[in-house]
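Q: Here's a chain of 72 amino acids. Please give me its 3D structure as tokens.
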Amino acid sequence: MVDNILKPLLIDNHLSLPVLLLFFGILGGLSLFGAVGIVIGPALLRALLDLYSKNTLTPMSDNQARAVGFSR
């Protein structure tokens, strides 16, 4: 019953998370935020995954490399 309510609510919201990550997002959201975490948890997980992939998978620009102390 819960799957019939939560899955369309969260997956149709274009989160495009795999089911396992959606499950962990819901559990983490419930433990941190309570009942509101059912919605906030997966959305927050998606935002964190986007930030992580954007910052770790893209190469540094020359200005960023100089700021960190690397020379190219």
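Q: Can you summarize the key feature?
A: The chain has one domain: 2-68.
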